[in-house]
User: Fold these one by one.
Assistant:
Number 1:
Amino acid sequence: MLRRLWDVFIAFTRSANLGFGGGPAMIPLMQNEVVKRYHWMNDEEFTDALAVGNSLPGPIATKMAGYIGYKVGGGLGALLALLGTVVPSLLAVMFLSHLITVYAHSPELKAMLQAVRPVVVILIAQTALGMGKKAFSNSVTWGIAAVAAVLLYFNVHPAIIIVASMLFGYVVFKNESQQR
Amino acid sequence: MLEHLWNLFVGFFRASNFGFGGGPATVPLMQVEVVNKFHWLTNAQFADAVAAANALPGPVGTKIPGFVGYQIAGWPGAIVGILASIGPTVLAVVILGSVLMRFANSPGLKAALKGVRPVIVVLIAQTSLQMGMTSFPNLMTWGIALATIALLYYSKVHPALMIVTSMMFGLVVFR
């Protein structure tokens, strides 16, 4: 049992802390550990877990770690998988946060931050584009996007727009997906 | 202090638990809470936090709450921010895992998710726009953006490497 718990911890530490680009970028690394290396699940089970994870809100990496850790080692397994996923990068970001606060007024840091901001803007725009390719399958989805943009402009809280669009999608797209 | 912690909890609870599409999709919602609602950071500072988080590996949905929580209220702040972000959904998959499995492929859920995806795209695009407004003070920053686009589409340079390189470049050019 101890061996299993240790494996869970190491598997998620490795897959979460070698992946850049947030949770979604580390899914293939997790699959490698969970399916290929440790054989805790087969590919289909992993895909099902991913489908469940994606149907819920929130960060995907911690949902996968919690679910798989629990299947492999119970509550303790879930806890260790989560710690492996979150703690190393958290410590690093704290350290960076500390440096940024201490050197907040240094011209060097300001120069570096001025140069990195355009890169971050482009990377986030690219995330939107990448998700956009899957999100716009017909003209109704464009209509939803247009309405969302207008509501955002008038400062409607995003959570309200999200819930409303899900209800709308449920009513409008339900028959369509049943046919397939 | 307790009020700070409570606000951190509420802010990140709302941000994470209405965002579909993993951590990156929750960044715009975090921006609404952190910048517009509680005024913990300015848009430029939030962009810096995102840059720091993106320069490191690991989930971005826990690095940003950790970073912001730590700046507002130290270690307890970081822990509260992260628990608020991951606690509810982790409990949901662990406790309801087998029940949820049955709904994962239901047409109703698929339809609802199809409806929400365009909204997430618009939210992320808006974050990029808002950050853009404070990120292009001179011609050189536009040049950096163009170079980033070129590298993204015509090379396989890793985004983390672009972040580090741009910071080195800035150190030389903007100081």
Number 2:
Amino acid sequence: MSVIFLLLIVSITVAALFLAAFIWNVKNGQYDDEAAAPLRMLFDDTAPAEKQTKDINNNPPSKSL
Amino acid sequence: MKVTAQPVAQCYHCGEDCTADQITYNNQSFCCQGCKTVYQILSKSDLCQYYQLNNNPGSAQRITVRKDKFSFLTDEKIQQQLISFKDDEQTHVTFYLPQIHCSSCLWLLEHLHKLNADIISSRVDFGKKEIDLVFNHQNTSLRSVAELLTSIGYEPYISLQNLQKAKPVIERSLIYQLGIAGFCFANIMLMSFPEYLGLDDAEKNLQQLFRYANMALALPVLLYCSLPFYTSAWGSLTHRYLNIDAPIALAILMTFGRSAYEVLSNTGSGYFDSMSGIVFFMLAGRALQEKTYRQLSFERDYAAYFPIAVTVLKNNQTIETALPDLKAGDTIIIHHGELIPADGLLTRGEAMIDYSFVTGESLPVVKEMGELLYAGGKQTGGVLELLVMKEVAQSYLTKLWNNTDKQTTQSYSFINAISRYFTWIVFGIAAVAALYWSFYDSSKAWNVVTTILIVACPCALLLSNTFTNGHVLRIFSRNKLYLRNAQVIEELATANHLVFDKTGTLTSSEKQDIAFTGKYLTDEEITCIAALAAQSNHPLSKELVKWLNRKEYFSVSNFNELPGKGIRGIIDQHIIAIGSDEFVTGEKINTHTGSVLYISIDGDTKGYFSIRNHYRPALLAQIKRLQKQYNISVLSGDNEYERKTLQLAIGKKAGLFFGQQPHDKLNYIQLQQKKGDRVVMIGDGLNDAGALKQSNAGIAITAGTNNFTPASDAILEADQLQNLPAFLKLAKANKKIILASFIFSILYNIIGLTFAVQGVLSPLIAAILMPASSISIILFTYAATVLYARLIRLK
């Protein structure tokens, strides 16, 4: 019987993780621009070591001026 | 002496024909200096992959951007409005780049750091045509970033709107609610199955666990996912009417209350699965219906057209001034291609004003010194000086825009009308049942009342409504009609009066009808005329070149242009002049209305080309047919010259009104509405803006969704105008499909209820039927809309 308790907890936890991932994605704006993402991944990056900061993937911080 | 006739090559940068002066650089041909310069910049920085991803990815650079155009970006106040974030090192800014159109653009714009190392990151939002830039402001400035973008052919579009409005926050709560409802619904279904399939007595403690887990999972649905229904229901109650969300909110609360009671008192398992399922489906329908078109804006006002700053001349010094700070009495300088931001008197320069933003008329108007120029026109000639007469907000057009407060004749949606009656009937039945059972068996009264309220919940109505609307909106958008929201479908369906603008709507602003009247012209003479006309940037000459369509060009010597009058030059040893009657023949002989280009060769007047707006022929025939069902009016700012031809083309019953000023159009629509008509206005340009706003449904016509359209309820691409009757038909069918699927679902409920009352239906079957009935309604609405759209030949 106790195995069902375990199963229940595991299954809901896994589902909750997917839900959290989904909400995180939406919040990060991954679904905002559906046109650019499929194009962007096709570009060859011939450039040597590109300068990038963490800000590239995150939304710009909210207006603070 | 015949000069070289060159074959036409395509510009390596923008793909346009290299006509007059072809430039060759690095074995590539370019149509103009601008395109070549962009190529030089890119090849220097090793960014030529831009040209390999797509052929001719650039946009034409023939019109050079004024050197100081972005000097206003050094103004601290303007800067603060534009940038979204700034710290000690970095500045974040978002620019709108209307030129973005292909993967090359994306690639180049995301490699900006190769051109300027101080640009830390650049990210393109393709749908919105925006670029998010992060740059180090200690080494570079906002102005130089904007100028860098301009130098590679992506000039940022910065308008007055950037100054006025805070950026809208993207509303994502519906998506979160939908995701959480889906999660809860699926898990509740999973944990309800043991109950339906039957459990051994030995496993009763498990049953308890499942029931409490279901209740826990239903809580987020009740408290978070159902919020839109509560707020909408509460909103309607405070306005003293019942909308469809009121009974639904009641049913959700009722179902949860009863289910919680059953679980806590250990008398049953409740209906958590039905509750969360129905909330999930209803939210899905809402999400479908409220799909927004990201690249479009229905809220644009004049601010989106107007520049953010203008050059003011003070004590012989030019000062860039933010537009709201402009005062009457200031002298402003308008350069070529700039918009006149405020009504003013022309004090210096040759004005050739293109009012196409305002009137839809694509041919520019010549204005003399001392004349009043209205805001909204675009200067196509040289530099002008203007004495501002009225502030921006007080100018004729902007005032018209701000003054229109649409008298919203409280239009209840028919869905809300149905649900109102429906709710009272359900309440009546519940009250009668409660009364009946309180006499016979008062312990059952509570059960019966809750059951009635749960079963009679108009969820099916809301489902069929939102899903049908969603499908219709989708079909419309596939046919390039974009509606602001679902309410517009109903406005289109109930309309009985169609009002059209003439210029730019009935006529095409891209195509002109050109005809030559006069003496016979040899082929060579025509080629010479084309060569001369190609030298000028005047819109009429451009139209003429396009229409003459010559594949080769002679070179022109002694070219000379008198702005607003005409052009003259020597080609193949002939002196050719093109222009107004006065310019070419020396006397005023023109009795013609519309635009006319006189031609003379070696002093011999050959005749004239008349250029008139081209009617969309398919549309006129459609309008004639629509007369059986609708009142038709045409409002035009032009004179009566074309009344006869137009009346003949669209039928006798149509009302034609000429010489209509923007406020006349607005008043006309108001008048019709007072008579009880429901008006659909179809127009383009700022002069229709007031009318578009006032009408029950305003459809703005645009040549491409890249272009700006005035605030309206719908945006339609011009080449789809002939589909208007089909659109109206589909909008009408929308209501019928909703009603049919509603009746369908009521039958479902009645059949299910009778079985349930008799006790024939097993709980398992019931649990499967509940989502199945919702899904079948969804499928029915889909099939019905798609089939009907096919029937009336929409995509």
